[in-house]
Amino acid sequence: MAHESFENEEAAALLNEHFVPVKVDREERPDIDTVYMNVCQAMTGSGGWPLTIFMTADKKPFYAGTYFPLHAKYGRIGLIELLSKTAVLWQQEREMLVSRGDEIAALFNRPIETGETSETSVVLENGFIALKDSFERRYGGFSYAPKFPMPHYLFFLLSDWKANKRDESLKMVKDTLTHMYRGGIYDHAGGGFARYSTDEKWLVPHFEKMLYDNALLINAYANAYAATGEALFRFVAEKTAVYMMHDMQTSKGGYASAEDADSEGVEGKFYVWSYDELKDMLAVDELSLLESRYGLKRGGNFEGQTILNRIGVADKADEADEAVLSKLYAQRKNRIAPFKDTKISAAWNGLAIEGMATAGMRLDRPEYIESAQRAADFILNYMMNEKGLICGTYMDSLGGPAFLADYANMAVAFATLYTASRKTDYIEKAKLLASQMLKLFRDKNGFAMTTADFEALFMLPRDDYDGAIPSGSASAVMALVKLYQITGEALWLDEADNAINVMLPLTYASPLSHMYLLTAMMLKNVPQRQIVISSPASCEDAAYAYETLLRRYDPFATVIWYDNSAEMNNALPHYEQYKTDAPFAGYVCQNFACQQPVYSVNELIDLVQAT
Length: 611
Fold this sequence. Notes:
This protein has about 600 residues and is an alpha+beta fold. It contains 22 helices and 19 strands.
């Protein structure tokens, strides 16, 4: 609509004569997007972008829709006609439109109904059943077409498998991640994942690449590898991490937001291949390899071109595959690349830092942790001060305000990065952000999306439902749970309990919309273990034990290396009790009640693996 309608002189004349047109960047103002998307979904039964809202001067909406062509077509009213009719109605029947806006505002400002609730164990079981019932068994995923990655569904299933020894949960994870890799949603030449697939096989993507999808998928693939040891998952996690570092990390360290689907005005042009182009540039055996393993056809599989894919091909790319794909990647660099949105989002960078740090730990790749640290340090240097976040987005200068998800995701990121790097400044920053998050956003219904003194919309924005990424409210609870796991401070557990108790009815009513909150609830509900290594920072045995234990997948265990430094005693005073004169001591604790220490690295590792 930006080019078709808002640059059109006839549309511009109507807008300027009769309306006050306002264009909103939903990444800068997710609160506005959330509020009015809820309106659109309620009024029309569906939503999506572009989002078009007609409202009164006091921000009360009376008409909503998504895409409107310039003139009527596809059975849709045209924007010109809609603007003209609305202008007439505003002049002749303004009271009716104002009254409609009042009614819609009143509908959305009704008190929140608590609804039916149940025990945590029942709600968690309902979450598993909901995923099982929606699982698409042929190609994985949790819908038919279009098909979205939904990595936070996989986080729940991995945790459920670990907690309940339920093989079906792990199978859903493995099938989904395997088929996603085989499909065209994965960029076989360059790494990374597109936004979603338009078909059930994951073949034809919407070619846009989003930071948050790749951040969450790195996390999922790395943890799946740690859980199963299957080389495919390590391969994809590594390729996606390299894509993140090479293509998405900016020169200052923060991760960029997205890469467009279009280049030269054509969706997917940068990513697809013609048979003749490949025939001219490759040897006969290389062309044959692409035909047999990557779906290359003379007629193509997408508008006469080929989207590379491994659908129906088992295992992962081998050395021969990689050699050919490297040639394609080099050739592709000569093309005009899609536009890259270099805006730095705190919320999305939080997911990326967590994902890269997790991959670094699980795969023993310190360069991924270093990449995550560069991004975290960008946030610290440009988007934070001693009181918390000063903005939620940054692009050459301070951007839009910080919202709940910015605080929550960055708190989780800093907590994860502390574990990966052992730099106590990160856990201090996680505690600072979580404390401010509680102060700024906590309310009687869980968490608001905005602060109490922020610009008033016609309703209070809330971020309670998972979408493409986990909800801000669920991420807030996850931050509190993780802080308790690391620090042992009861404050964080109490706050998590309070938030869960008021949000529990939401999970009962709609489990699929709250899978990340259910995951946080499971992490809190399952007995926690703490594995504490007490040893000087210079101890090589301690380093070996720590890195070995971090490679394991166990969301219900926290690994801490207590080195008796002043920085650690200040940041995590709970662990001073583990001070020892021995060069190495290891403790295995459950809910902070510990067994007798062991004084051998191998004995500690064996003890952890046996329990």
